Structure formats: C-alpha cells, structure tokens
Amino acid sequence: MKQAPQVRETNVVGFDDEAKKLKEYLYAECAELDVITIVGMPGLGKTTLAGKIFRDPEIQYEFPTRIWVYVSQEFKKKDIFLSILKEFTGLTDDIKTKSDKKLADMVLSYLDTGKFLLVMDDVWSCEDWDKLHIALPKGNPRGKVMITSRQQELGWHVKRRRGPHMLRFLTLEESILLLQLEVFQEPKFPPELEAEGSLIAERCDGLPLAIVVIGGILVMKSTWQDVSKSFDTYLKDAGKRMENIILLSYEKLPYHLRECFLYFGMFPEDYEISAWKLTRLWIAEGLIQQKNVSLEETAENYLEELINRNLVRAVKLKFNGKVKTCWIHDMLRDFCLTEAGSNREGFLQEIKMSKAEGFQPSVSSETELKFRRLCIHSNILDFVSRKPYGPSVRSFVCFPRDESIMPLGDISHIPGGFKLLRVLDVEPIKFTKLPSDMYHLLHLRYLVLSVSLKFLPPAFTKLWNIQTLVVRTDSQTLEMKTDILSMTQLRHFKTNASATRGPSHLSPALQMSLTGLSLLLSLSVIAMSLTGLSLTGLSHPSPAQLEAFGRSWEAISAPGRQ
Q: Which residues cross the membrane (predicted)?
C-alpha cells in the first residue's frame, strides 16, 4: 500500500477536532461515492491532516484498500491512473501503453464495487478534478475520496451540498505547543527561553509550516536570540512572511548544506525522491566534502541534517533506519528554484512549457542556455528536438513519469548540445541505439539510461570518469562487452537485467578479476552470470556491503571470505 508522507504523530497539533469531523464523513453511509475536500492556504497542514487520517488505525481497519496519489499542478491523467492501478495489478508494458480512456476504464472497474479510500493530494483546480473523476465509480456508495486543495471553489464544485472543509489556522496556544514539541520534544520551554519562544510562535501567525521551519533553526540553543532579533527584519512584509521564514532558515544553514538544499529544485513538485539517487547526484555534482568517512556516508549525513532542520521530510525508511525516500514541501521547492535561478548565478533552471509561450526559457540551437544545471519534467522529446545548446551546462536531468522513445534523428542532440556534462539522468527516455558522440562526454560522473540493448557496448570504457552507472533495459539479459576494469572511478553499477559476462575478447586475467575497481561500492543487478569472478582489490568486497540482488553472489567468490 502506498505510504502517505510521514509525520511525527506527537508533533501534529491542533488537528484532533478536524480529524474527528473528517472521520465522521468517512464513516457516514451514502447513496453514492462520497468526496471530501480539505481546503487551505499553502503551509496550513492539508497534507499533514490527510496523512494523519490515512494512517489512523481505525481508518486502516475500516478501509483495507487505501490509495494515496500526488496530483500537483503539472500532472498527467495517465500518471494518476497508473498510480492507482499499481495498487491492484502489476504495471506491464501493455498497461503502460494504453490510452488515458482505457486506463480510466481499468481504474473504474477496480474501484466499482469494493470499499476504498482514495486520497488525491494537491488538486489545483475544478478543471483538474473534471479530468480525473471520470475514472471514479460515482455509483459506489462504499467508496470515499479525500482531496486536498488550495482552491475553495473546488470544494463546492465537487460537493455542492456539503462544500469544502476549511482548514483553520492554529491558535496561539497551539502554535506555542507545536514549537515546543518541534524543538524540545516536550510541551514546555526552558524558563530562560519561554518569553522568546512565545513571541516567535506568535509571529508565525498560526501557520504550521512556518512554525516547523523555524523549529528546525531553533534546535540549536545558540540561535535563539539571533533568530528573535532577526524576526523584525525578515517579517516586516506581512505578504511574504512564509517566504521570508524560509529565507531565514536557509541563511542559517551551514554553507556545505546550502547547495545541497537548493538541489531539491531539480525534482518535480510532490515527487517522492530516492535518497540513493539524491546522494549519488550530490556526489557527482561535487557538493559533498570528503571527510573521514565515505562520500556516501557523508551525503547521507547531509540529508539527515536537512531532515532534522525540517526543510526536508523523510517519507520511507529502510530496515536499518536510514532514509529510503524523502519529500519537500512545494513552498520550499519554490524557494529552491527562485534562489538557485536568480540569486546563485545560474545554479539551476527548470525548463517549463506553456501553450501560450512555448518553452521558458527559450530553447533553440541559436539560443545559449546559460545555466549550470537544467531540469525538465514534461515535453522532453519536444525539448530535445529543438537542438538545445548549453556549453556551460554541467547537469541535465528529467523525471517525467511516462516513458518516451527517442526518435533516431534526435539521439545526438543531448551530447551534441551539452558537451561538458557531469550528470545525465534521462531514464524516462528510451534509446533504441546510443549515439557515438555519447562517448565523447568524458566529464560524465553520473549516467542513467534506458535502452533497448542486449549488451553494454565496448565504447563505454571511454567514459572513464563515471562514478554511478544505471542501465535500464527491456532485455532480460545485458551482456557486458565493455572492459569495466578501465572505469576506475566507478562506485555504483545498477541494471534491472541479468548481467552476463561478455565473450572472450578480454584476456583471461581480465575476465577473472576486478582488481582495478578499487572504488566499487555497490553492484546491483537482478542476477549475474560471472562464474569464477574474483573481487580481489575491492575496497568493500563483502556481499553485505555490496547492494546485490537475487542470486548475484552464488557465482562470485570474494577472496578471504569463502
């Protein structure tokens, strides 16, 4: 079952009466599908309240089928329908290629008779709801849909008799309590901080997000007086109070965390971010300082520090307690984009497209993109077809939720237009062949590709700077024709296929040893056919330390660890 964003239950303040009322709506018998809308301004806690109800044990018992989907401003119907369907069935290639209408019909058939709770988080408009509700069974009285939105009119549009549930601001007492719990994990301030704490809570105007972000700064006692004195400067513009609180929190970050935080602007709104992906991107970007532990451990510590400062939220944890996925509030993401674009000399830029204005900023072979990092999350094939040109671009990432096949005529436009790339993550684009000039990107440290290939070409060895290599293929096997030994910077290799040893064009010594790969930390494949392979010389050769799947290790012997 898909998880809603995690919240610390003891720090959810002021929502008990709200949750009780909404649960009554969920328990009520209806003649048809019931839709409940939670409406409030950004930062008021709509997602937090919905998540509290979604995870309530009584609700879990009442609704064994519970589904949570993020909608956001730039959604596609297909993405939402697939998110719902994956709770009922595997998403085969046949399902992924169906039309929106057929996917809507499939969703309708699964939800038509059963009892379910569907949360649609962050619906932006009545028009968006009209596009989505065609997949919902209006005649199923056992179904409940809960929507969060900023738009009051949406609540009346969806349920005219009842209207929206308007989320209120916190009272002063609730604001003080939330700040106490965020900073001290108990409902009181130390006596010497009581006056300042109450004043700071009052100036947050009952907005939970503002209190939580401020709480992330105040965890360090030494910052209390400094923050209290700064409030008058930062909060003099009442219309931009939340934005200025985020700015204050950002400026209190240590310098080594600032660019790591801004990097969250690279990901789409309401995107559940893989911590593995994020930390490897940070490393490839040169944002992680070498310390006494590995770069990976340092990056994980940076992420945990941002979470502890309430700028990022952990969504899912691994069995060992480390962060598996994380999420950033859209107001914080907006700050990252604004700060990174206008105030950081082109740190990153999100490419957007509108029907009226086309791509912003403008994209063509004659227009230079003067940013160090580019992200684009929709209309990616159209973007590439325009031959984008960015001689200063170091990173190009895209995270559209649907997969597209790159036309053969356009496959060289990315390496041709961005010749100094360090990071290239284009997983949603499927390459039926790889352009020869891809191997001219000698600065690449991080590469994620989706291919229709059955082998890793020998030319991959030219990419000697690669630290992280992820290859997704629709083939069941991936033959390793490349001399992986020459990729001495390689730290992580992942593929979803069964990796097989290439033919004997390599010398027996090279076939039998990975001695040159002293930096390899993780090997993640479904299965490997590398019988007799030795891991002599690896800095971390134990199976427990390598992220291998399936039967990867049955055919591999690590010297000294028989």
A: none
Residue with the larger pLDDT of the pair 274 and 238:
274
Domain co-membership, 227 together with 131: no
Question: 355 and 342: one domain?
Answer: yes
146 and 177, same domain (yes or no): no
Same domain, 418 and 521: yes
Is the model more confident about 210 or about 474?
210
Residues 148 and 225 in one domain: no
Higher pLDDT, 540 or 420: 420
Residues 149 and 201 in one domain: no
Boundary of a domain, candidates 252, 282, 316: 252
Q: Taking 60 as the threshold, does the pLDDT of residue 5 lie above it?
A: no
Contact (Cβ atoms closer than 8 angstroms) between residue 149 and residue 124: yes
Q: How many residues does the chain have?
A: 562
**Does residue 79 carry a pLDDT above 60?**
yes
Query: What integer pLDDT is reported at residue 263 of this predicted model?
Result: 96
What is the band of 456 on the pLDDT scale with cuts at 50, 70, 90?
Answer: confident
Domain with residue 141: its CATH number is 3.40.50.300
Chosen domain end from 166, 199, 233: 166
The model carries a pTM of 0.83
DSSP letters spanning 388-425: -B-TT--EEEE--SS-EEPPGGGTTHHHHH-TT-SEEE
Average pLDDT over residues 268-293: 92
Indicate the pairing of strand 165-166 with strand 143-149: unpaired
The boundaries of the domain holding residue 58 are 9-166
Give alpha helix (H) positions in 74-193. 77-85, 93-96, 100-111, 126-132, 152-158, 172-184
Cβ atoms of residues 214 and 249 within 8 Å: yes
- What total number of domains does the chain contain? 3
Do 43 and 154 lie in a common domain?
yes
Q: What is the pLDDT of residue 307?
A: 93
The whole-angstrom separation of Cα 305 and Cα 17 is 33
Are 75 and 127 in a shared domain? yes
SS3 at position 133: helix
**Which amino acid is it at 408?**
L
CB 481 within 8 A of CB 458: yes
Q: How many CB atoms lie within 10 A of CB 453?
A: 19
DSSP string computed for 213-276: HHHHHHTSGGGHHHHHHHHHHHTS-GGGHHHHHHHHHHHTS-HHHHHHHHGGGGSPTT--EEHH
- Residue 197: give its domain's CATH number: 1.10.8
Task: Using the Cα atoms of residue 67, residue 68, residue 71 and residue 75 in order, give the sign of their dihedral.
Answer: negative
